[in-house]
Design goal:
This protein is an all-alpha fold. The chain has two domains: about 140 residues, Up-down Bundle (Four Helix Bundle (Hemerythrin (Met), subunit A)), CATH 1.20.120.160; about 150 residues. The chain is about 70% helix and about 0% strand. The chain contains 13 helices and no strands. Helix 1 packs antiparallel against helix 4. The longest helix is centred in the first third of the chain and has 27 residues. The protein is globular and about 60 Å long.
Length: about 300
């Protein structure tokens, strides 16, 4: 799928704005880690690294994505082991060095617009190797860091209670004040995040909603507010489903969102859709339908 260049530009600006805050989350989290840490104390830094990884991937910053991914994998070990893994001064110092290997090039990119990707990766490699050696006793039997699948069940509830809720509240504010926000860019960035989250948590229905929202936005770029309203209703219903115990699907896209994702009918002169108060109210009140199969081809294109 090819997105409107203006939407991509907005997504890049959104990532840059969020990256500094995410770096701060990691730094403050590492500085306050106690030797006998709890899983809750690691969750935020793990999620921040994951968010930077996904955001960097969505805007083509492959080196930043790689660095954030390596850190995320290390944080997964801290999370999965909990207090069984003591964070001694040596490990804490190495983790901070690893964080700096991400912070330095990303900050340079934010401040100047450029950074040396090859140099950043070369600088980070020996530091990451030291950290992985320190964590070697906690690797899986195959010699790899634990898969996110191991953490999925534990994280799903807390992520949907906090991170997904915050994202949806953000979209609520965008819908309430569209004149003060870049609606298309906000939906693009949030749907990208939700799509990655759905893949990691193995919630295909939630991912289908995200992909349908992106497809609808691409099909109707001038109707970004309406698309956001419809997608937001679906995301809200999916969040509630997960909070109520759904760990296999994560909701499904509504018929209204699927129709938008399919784009204008062949031969359409305008490529626009009517926005009526009654129609929006009907969409937000409608129950979700089982239409995930209709989006399988779309998901294959996105994968």
């Amino acid at each position: 799928m090819t997105f409107n260049p203006n939407i991509r530009d907005q997504a890049y600006r959104f990532f840059i704005q969020e990256a500094s805050e995410l770096l701060h989350v990691i730094e403050s989290g590492l500085l306050t880690l106690a030797p006998e840490h709890s899983t809750s104390s690691v969750r935020n830094i793990m999620w921040a690294a994951h968010s930077i990884k996904g955001g960097a991937a969505s805007v083509g910053l492959e080196a930043i994505k790689t660095l954030a991914h390596r850190l995320e994998e290390m944080f997964k070990v801290l999370y999965s082991q909990g207090e069984a893994l003591e964070i001694d001064p040596e490990l804490k110092g190495l983790l901070l060095q690893g964080y700096n290997c991400l912070r330095s090039p990303l900050t340079q990119k934010i401040e100047t617009g450029n950074f040396d990707a090859e140099q950043a990766l070369a600088t980070a490699e020996p530091v990451f190797a030291q950290i992985e050696a320190k964590l070697s006793g906690f690797l899986t039997n195959e010699g790899h860091l634990p898969s996110f699948v191991v953490l999925r069940v534990d994280l799903a509830l807390s992520i949907f209670e906090v991170d997904v809720a915050e994202g949806l509240d953000r979209l609520d504010s965008v819908v309430a004040n569209p004149e003060a926000n870049q609606v298309a860019g906000e939906l693009q960035a949030q749907a990208d995040t939700f799509a990655r989250l759905a893949e990691l948590l193995n919630l295909p229905g939630f991912g289908a909603i995200a992909h349908a929202a992106l497809a609808a936005l691409d099909a109707y770029p001038s109707q970004a507010l309406h698309v956001t309203q419809v997608a937001l209703a679906d995301f809200r219903a999916a969040q509630q489903a997960v909070l109520d115990g759904d760990r296999t699907q994560g909701g499904t896209p509504s018929a209204a969102l699927v129709e938008l994702a399919e784009g204008p009918a062949t031969g359409s002169d305008t490529g626009l859709i009517p926005i009526l108060t009654g129609e929006v109210a009907e969409v937000q009140a409608a129950s979700l339908n089982d239409v995930f199969s209709a989006l399988e081809a779309l998901l294959e294109d996105e994968s």
